[in-house]
Amino acid sequence: MLQLLSIQNLKTYALIIAIICVVWFYKSWEFRGVEMQRQAENMEQIRKYDSLKFASQTYTKKELDQYLEYNRKDLQQFLKENKIATRKIEQIITQSLKYRDTTIKNVNLQPILDAIKQKQNIKVPVIDSTACMIIKGYVVFENDTLSLNITDRQFKNTSDVIKYWERNQWKFLGIKTRLFGRKQATVIIKDACGNTQTFVIDKNKKPTSLLEVGKLL
User: Fold this and answer.
1) What is the rounded CA–CA span in Å between residue 1 and residue 161?
2) 3-state DSSP call for residue 1?
3) pLDDT 10s digit of each residue in the chain, 217 long?
4) Predicted model pTM
5) How many Cα neighbours within 13 Å face the side chain of 180?
């Protein structure tokens, strides 16, 4: 009787182990699929970065450390100085703005020239303004010295980052169409001044290794 109970117990234990193994392999397979999808999406975002001026990445802690080490030493140093550990970071949003104004503006300096001829001291305010930037200063002639002094610089810009979805373009009977095309997320950035590039890094909150998958079982 005891022998039968022992055999029955062994069968129960074997069944439990088998179930655990099945769940483990399923979770491992699921984890690999999620990881491959995450990495593929990261690569796709990087590929479109130059055209969209926007990229969103999901990094593990190890990947974030590598990004800071090889791409953003300045940010790595900033985090170190402020005692912010990468394991505590939830999101990093980096925006870089490039602005160049080639508008030509003429300022009449005849009063300065007249003062120089008469050897008189003079101070003339100068303001150069556009929709994006205001520069203020003055030109002064004093003690036989002519100088330009810039006293104030102001720059303003508004950026709107719009994330939306659209359908992929495909060909039907040789005609390009988006009808019934696969949906894909895309981004457009509206800048009042200059061109803004936006790089978003999100911390990956899903399991990052098979060991962590095991902890969830």
Assistant:
1) 74
2) coil
3) 445 446 666 666 666 666 666 555 555 655 566 667 667 777 777 777 777 777 888 888 888 898 889 988 888 888 888 888 888 888 888 888 887 878 787 878 888 888 888 888 888 888 888 888 889 998 988 888 889 899 999 888 877 776 666 777 777 677 777 676 777 666 767 778 887 777 777 777 665 554 444 444 4
4) 0.56
5) 2
